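Standup, Tuesday
Yesterday: got the pipeline producing structure tokens again.
Today: sanity-check two examples.
Blockers: none.

Example 1:
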Amino acid sequence: MAVRHGGDVAGTLGLDRKSGFCKSTSIFYSKREPISLPPNQSLDVTTFISSQPHRGTTAFVDAVTGRHLSFPEFWLRVERVTACIYALGVRKGNVVIILSPNSIFFPIVSLSVMSLGAIITTANPISTSGEISKQIEDSNPVLAFTTRQLVSKLTTANLNLPVVLMDGETWSLEAMMETELSESRVKHRVELDDTAALLYSSGTTGKSKGVMITHRNLIALVQATRARYGLEQRTVCTIPMYHIFGFGSFTTGLIALGWTIVVLPKFDMAQLLTAVEIHRSSYLSLVPPIVVAMLNGAKEINSKYDLSSLHTVVAGGAPLSREVTEKFVESFPKVKVLQGYGLTESTAISASMFTKEETERYGSSGLLAPSVEGKIVDPDSGRVLGVGQTGELWMRSPTVMKGYFKNEEATAASIDSEGWLKTGDLCYIDSDGFVFVVDRLKELIKCNGYQVAPAELEALLLAHPEIADAAVIPIADVKAGEYPMAYIVRKAGSNLSESEIMDFVAKQVAPYKRIRKVSFLASIPKNPSGKILRRELKKLTTSKL
């Protein structure tokens, strides 16, 4: 696959420096300085991160226990855990699964696994045993890291999988981190294009797909993070580390920059604000529902907490409306809100804001990230469009995934022969190069920053003995962004209720996938080929609200 990643486009014929659009190639080029990647093709992301110079002292702080890890302590524990899992037989190409809430140990496990050339796959702690079982069946891990509270989900899924407890006394991560290093191990050659992480993303068909993220992808993310933020700041981690937003920031990117990361096991508004006050956090990475919650409680928050150290909120995971952004800045005038846009398939980054001036382009996701190229393509005709025209965003960059794990068909449908990733999002790029996300071509629902596949919920609903047909669409919500809503056709003679349907689904899926509203129809609108006409259902929903 021949791929060109940004680079020097100063001499490109017909390049408009204001928008970044080149008429001769129909490509939008990033206006940011291109990132540099290591010339050495044999390099793992852990070695790269550990070699980066900075003057940071404290790497991680547990916000609950107060436990601190300095950078030397952190890297010593990474080295020790690497040696221990190697002794357990983990080798290059093996998969290791981690099922854990946020923890100061999450990055230690992840970086240890990747340093061997093995592959870390992260699981959502609120997933059901059935959902985790599917991920285990697909990824076939040789070892698992989890907590005492979550271990039953793993053992239910696979009785033969060896488990290391991150909070246990025997077979524990703590014991690994205290093990003195013995004789040196054989270090396998790790290439930049080897898979480092396997993060699962909901597919439109309902089947979750493993996104193969390489060492090159993660190193490129580190360099893009460096360009955006700079060295040695303080932040509080409350977004999930298993998700690409948290994984990219808190297990790779910010460690390389010498940041102090204060870790909360899960989101709690009071704990988050207290941590900002106590640890003098300057940055917060948040998903839109938390931004909205802060806005709604702004008066009480400002009177109760000292947030004078906070100057930047980085919002990602879903779009943040102009209205919310403006009101947030009014309520917290010393804080700027940097929005961004990315996918798991693009290792979290495609477009982003860097400066306060850029935040004033309300409604946008910022400029194309460093070394990112973009195309706007008409989804019907395939014609490449220009400035201000809306179509599907295609992107090419060193952060684009290797492909979908064991799924060549899906990979070929998402990445073309020239390395262009089809994002599935309808966007336009304006005359100043700012990216605006208009709608999704993909049918995924974004609830609290999580992806929900309608097809997965529809398959569950159709398994109910009293449901003849079903369709799931998003319904807008100020706090969550979107919720799944179901349209149901009951079988003849059935009096199935809304609450019974919601309970039926809730027992089988993670909380963010639960149906929050049900409406009954005589039939589901479909096209001649049988595809659900979701836009018709969305119009119907809007007319009822």
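Example 2:
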Amino acid sequence: MTFVSSSEQKPAARLIIALLTRSRRAFGVALVACVLNGVASVMLVATLNRALSAPASSDGTLAWRFALCAVVALCTRVVSGVLFARLSQDTMAQLREHVARRVAAAELRDVERIGAAPVQSVLTDDATNVSMLFFALPNIVMHGSIVFGCLGYLAWLSWPVCLLALTAIVTGSLGYHLGDRRAIASLQAAGQSQDKLFGYLGALFAGAKELKLHRARLRQFVDGQLGAAIGEVRDHRRRAFSAYAVGVGWIIFLFYGFLGAAAFWPSLGVRANAGATAGYVVVFLFMLVPLDGLLNNIPTLNAARVSLTRIEKVMAEFGSVSVATAEQTSSTHDARFRTLTMRGVTHAYFHERDERMFRIGPVDLTLSPGELVFIVGGNGSGKTTLAKVLTGLYEPESGVIEIDGMPVTEGERAAYRERFTAVFNDFHLFDGLLGIVDPSDASRAAADARANALVAKLALDHKVQVIDGAFSTRSLSTGQRKRLALVVAYLEDRPLYLFDEWAADQDPAFKAVFYEQLLPELRSRGKTVIVVTHDDRYFPIADRVLKLENGVVASETRGGGVRTAAVDVVGSGARGRMEFVRKESER
């Protein structure tokens, strides 16, 4: 019986084989246990059938055989159930790790284009379908073994009766296959609708403020868009499992017809031998339950195969970057460099505001250690995109980025990114000093002390503490979380720093601290600092000010390059302002 098309089977088969590679021994033992369970079950019915027609003198031998088969059936059932339960959870964990690593290894452009909704759907609904395969698989193998064993026993009893049973099963399978194709199509459509549903569920949280302020919008969103997506998933799955229910009913009906024909068709000779008739009835009734169980588990098998195919397709959208390549990064943030140069670099992307393709470049730019550069320009001029290209998050479509005259190749781009520490405008703050403090490192107490000293200097110590490399809370305002992200950036201690509108969410006191103390202190340590900003009152602090217009550098102005001999992160001039902010925030 064909469950999915051959083109869909190949990626699903590749993925499941890859996931089971580490558990192949347990998987093999579980399958053998299932087959042995089927054999023991058939031996049970054969022994019971023989006992009904055997003389009383053989009852003791048959009873011991029956007991032995029952014990074997019990043990193999338990062993296969336990092993498949472990395989289910192990495979789900491996699948989620596979997806997470694939997304982590993908290029930023692909991550932004695809979004979180398909991945969330894959990690929840599709991963659950795959895990359920391992609860259905033992039943499929055991019930299949019992059905085929019963057919073999029927063939030993009577070839005509066995052929009649096979005819009923084959005829029923043809009708089942027609419904199966419709069910597969409905399951695939349900997966696509599930992606939309997860997108709307994300909007339910991200847009909570806007929904609370507008009752009509809330009603239209929940009852309209979100409700429609929920209804689509429900309807597609209804159609899929209804098709399976009709198919199972059709096969069982034909099996009843087979029972009637075997019992009432005189030419089969069933009525001529009462003992043979009893044997047929016992085998028929014993085979009915496993056949029903086998057919009812096929939808779970098909749902898992559709989910595996969908997972592979979603992962293919993230490109073919290997996880090993992404993880092979050297300690380039410790390396010295003399110049970082962009030569004729361009990059195009879809500009949502103008609904057109927008291109930055060609950009020619050279950066040196101990230099503070501001990038300015109006909204939509390409500042953030240029920052992402500069840091290696976006690949240049033309031109080249060079370190000390050597071009950064495709294979070196992951290592090149390791030179940068960046706090973007849409930054994410993790819950600890990930990548900076090793939880098993004995020196993490010293790292905590350094981090807490910076936290105190940024007037956050009354809100948050760093304990064992983790933040005690992230329930902070946007400006406070940006200050905490700045603490992480300082501790990374890399040669290039990029701040994208860092001061936009800060009050004047912290803006002054950032521009007058923190940036010059980084520069004095030999760091290359790039700042995307609109704060024109601080332009004189920079060594250079680059103005972007329509994606190109329209002008370059030399700033004052005001340098301070800052040794402490926060100077005495700013300390009074910090104390005022601290008192205000504690009130």
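Quick observation on example 2: Residues 1-9, 322-334, 563-587 have pLDDT under 50 and may be disordered. Residues 340-429+481-558 form a domain with the Rossmann fold fold (CATH 3.40.50.300).
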